[in-house]
Amino acid sequence: MKVALVTGAFQGIGYATCELLLEQGYAIVMADVQDCTEKATAFTQAGHKAISVTVNLADSSCFSKVSSVIESEFGHLDALINNAAILKDFGIGPIEMQEEMLREVLEINQIGPFLLTQTLIPLLKKSSAPRIVNLSTQVAQLEQLSDMNSPLKDDICAAYQMSKVGVNANTVLFAKALEEFNGKVNSCCPGWVETDMNLDDLPDYGDSQDRPKTVKEGADTSVWLATLDDNGPTAGFFTDRQRINW
């Protein structure tokens, strides 16, 4: 049985990602700072295989325990979906950004996922086809950020954007590191999705959506990338299963 760990699994896109992977026969490790025990139990009672682990991305000391639980329960890991993130700085630019907020956002959104991935690499290497998916955003595309005439020019969330540029760096670095092990590592933007992170004044991502996606629609590209076959892409950035520029 293939095994996937999803961070931010308690709700929203992360929870929907778990549902879609379970439908494909995966065992799921639901990882979140919130307790997913009841939700994992409900999945198990419905005939699936799911367990929960507590993960605080701001505290790397918990990562080795997560690895130990997966090693004990499954012995390997096939897919890691780094979905969890925070957005708390919308409208705050680089001049106004306070150090405490900057460090918190970078720690949870980019540094924590990097260190968690690093910790889980030995388990991913035990898979015949390891897959890593990093949730990013089109508002962190360097192509957009460097365009002084971009329609997203005034949509600023400096710490969040910096952290997601870092997430994309995580992607290409780990893609190179896992290439010899048949690994595929990609970033994706879910687009405009109706979640608790959503705000009325969020940028439109330049994708011309006329409505927010459902959480399952938002999770689709993540699941596609997590289940790629040997011919699938690596070191890429995708939305709606289509490659986009960095």
Automatic annotation (TrEMBL):
Full protein name: SDR family NAD(P)-dependent oxidoreductase
Entry similarity comment: Belongs to the short-chain dehydrogenases/reductases (SDR) family.
Superkingdom of this protein's organism: Bacteria
Pfam hit, one: adh_short
Species: Vibrio gelatinilyticus
TM segment ranges: none
InterPro entries: NAD(P)-bd_dom_sf, SDR_fam
Gene Ontology MF annotations: oxidoreductase activity
Keyword NADP: yes
Keyword NADP included in the entry's annotation: yes
Entry-linked Gene3D superfamilies: NAD(P)-binding Rossmann-like Domain
Matches recorded under SUPFAM superfamilies: NAD(P)-binding Rossmann-fold domains
Alphabetized UniProt keyword annotations: NADP, Oxidoreductase
